Automatic annotation (TrEMBL):
Compartments where located: Membrane
A molecular-function term among this protein's GO annotations: transmembrane transporter activity
Keyword Transport carried by entry: yes
Record keywords, A-Z: Membrane, Transmembrane, Transmembrane helix, Transport
UniProt xrefs under Pfam families: MFS_1 (PF07690)
This protein's GO CC annotations: membrane
Origin: domain of life: Eukaryota
Primary location group: membrane
Protein name: MFS domain-containing protein
PANTHER family: MAJOR FACILITATOR SUPERFAMILY (MFS) PROFILE DOMAIN-CONTAINING PROTEIN (PTHR43791:SF3), PERMEASE-RELATED (PTHR43791)
Bilayer topology: Multi-pass membrane protein
Amino acid sequence: MPIWSPRHSDSFRTANETTDMAMSMESGTATATSPTTVNDAEALLLTDTHTRVRRTDLERRIIRRVDWRVLPILGTLYALALIDRTNISIARIVGLDEDLGLSIGNRFSIVTGIYFIPYTLLQLPSNLLLRKVGPRKLLSFCVIAWGTTQLSMGFVSNWWLLGFLRTLLGALEAGFFPSMVYLISTWYTRHEVQTRLAIFYVVAIILDGFSAFFAYILSLLSGKLGIAGWAWIFIIEGAMTLAFGILGWFFLPGFPDCNNFLSPEETAVVLNRVQSDRGDSLPDILTWKKFVDAFDWRVWAYSLMFLCATTSTYGVGFFVTLILRGLGWSVSASLLLSAPPFVFAGMSTIIFSRLSDYYRQRALFIAIQCGITIVGWCLTGFAPAGGWRYGGLFLSNAGSSGTVIGILAYSSNNIVSHSKRAIVSGVIISAGGVGGLLASNVFTETSAPRYLPGIVVTIIFQVLLLVVLCATTVYFHRQNAGAIRESAQLEGHPGFLYTL
């Protein structure tokens, strides 16, 4: 019995209509029509393949259109997700600590860490709902709901109520990131995915980097309407998220087989590219057997690597301003200086992602960026001069941000079928929630301002990431060699080879 199955339209195109559409595409006269259905896509896949060679320019034009429709809106919404989950550290240094007593015991670690419990547990269920409910409905609901939750944090009067709202925030944000990764991976071929993931992720981390100084400006409203400065941060940023969630209802893209911004002919080009690349352009039915079979050792290997990478990114995201305060800078200077490491991380991530796609190599570039992360944290933790320790934040943030995207592309490239893609992306990114929970507990209040225990744990995790990466790469290399030697199929698709 299926767990879920893709929805099919009741109408079918005739053979003549399909042929006419393919001919109109060749002549460049195709125009946007009503939303494309799975049946439209199936028919066009059969009639359209023999003309692919002549469509290079057309493909480029269509993919550029997909880029502009898919990536900016997803990047902006994910930026809001990052800002809303990490702005508590900025609110803390502008008065939240004193008003709610977060510096007492482990309260701050509890309030930051409790977010990741529902965030981790609910990612897979949310990802499985995405195909059933649809990206526009599910994702816009999540954004509107967590924006409302964020806004409500501006009116809390004690730390445990803040913790409750943080828990609710984690539940509502749970499915957003894995859903975006899953959605993006369905639109592009394997060696286009990392650059696209990097673009939307870089938009997010750069905006998140400048959010610290923006939050400080909001805190200067302290006293207006009798509201504290830290509360204004939650109220205004929550209202902004709420507004963008409403816009998302109108502009969020769907899956390629049921989108509403390409014509059926243009959709066929997108689907044919994916079909010839990895053989899973159309959704398949998710059964219990497929669900169980998806949990092989490779999924746990990807998840462990992602956990190791996100422990570092959350370490920077939650504690960069606190580390800078520990180096002796003022509140305003710490918030201003927290932005450049994120801009540098964005530039680095784009460069490494383009190189990784161009050379069709994942493991090599992940390993390089992992090494950069290790060097960065060593400088921040152990360098004697403040300038070197600040420079280490540039390297640790750049390396770990690029590693996160590299691991997502590495895993996505080596998966075939929509059902498995939904499961695997949910599980892997759930492991990222565990990484966030670990970061919030190893960078402890008692170890401030240098946070040496957290830095040491993060460095150890980077070494573990390299060991697991080496093991998976050796395995994939041997599988590819065996498939070539014996003319065998990998993942049930002729010509498919694992990306190393």
